[in-house]
Write a structure and sequence with these properties.
With 207 residues, the protein is of the alpha+beta class. It contains six helices and ten strands; from the N terminus they run αββββαβαββαββαβα.
């Protein structure tokens, strides 16, 4: 099973739990997560936090779930953000992977694409359907993104409540801010798994 497929399956179970107005088990929400065995750091935008209980870290693929800090820990202090759920999926390392582009991301989508755009290294696609199937009470419109992070590809997704500004253009801006806060670190090389190719990974984002 590819990184993208397994992460999508995990997201379906984790997103509904993270939407509750209560702190998740596993300690207070964090502002960042270190995954890909130390090679990738995902830092949350202001007002958003990482759900510790939903983080999955593996040499073959990692997964991070983010939501508003207020939804994960109602007692948390700091800036209040619009409710949203964001996911970050990190592929296995493969130096031969080509940078994702918006046209390829849109072509891999199984539903209508409302917009596709390239923001620097970040490819974005605005999808017309599927958001409400992941987030109960959510807007069908949602955003997907993909970008290189060192020798890996990161897949991004954003789901928002019905009619939220984040289901529209504001969602693209928030995903762009999240992508800009993803950093890479040098780690000792590990035995690389068989590469899937960037086309397979992009298609798996929509499973």
């Amino acid at each position: 099973m590819s990184t993208w497929t397994s992460s999508a399956a995990l997201a379906g179970a984790a997103l509904a739990l993270a939407a509750c107005d209560a702190a998740r088990p596993g300690g207070p929400p964090a502002r960042e997560a270190v995954v890909a065995r130390g090679a990738v750091v995902v830092k949350a935008p202001p007002g958003y936090c990482v759900d510790r209980a939903a983080v999955r870290d593996s040499a073959t693929g990692s997964f991070v779930l983010l939501a508003s800090c207020a939804s994960l820990a109602p007692e948390s202090e700091g800036p209040r953000a619009l409710p949203a759920l964001m996911t970050v999926s990190v592929s296995a390392a493969d130096p031969a992977l080509a940078p994702p582009d918006a046209a390829a991301l849109a072509a891999a989508a199984p539903v209508e694409v409302l917009a596709a755009r390239q923001r620097g290294a970040l490819a974005l696609a605005h999808l017309a359907e599927g958001g409400a199937e992941v987030l109960p009470g959510g807007d069908p419109r949602h955003w997907r993104g993909a970008a290189r992070a060192g020798e890996r590809v990161v897949g991004l997704a954003l789901y928002a409540p019905s009619d939220s500004p984040l289901a529209g253009e504001a969602g693209a801006n928030l995903l762009t801010a999240l992508a800009a806060r993803i950093e890479t670190r040098a780690v000792a090389p590990a035995e690389a798994p068989e590469p899937d190719g960037v086309g397979t990974m992009l298609a798996g984002l929509f499973n």
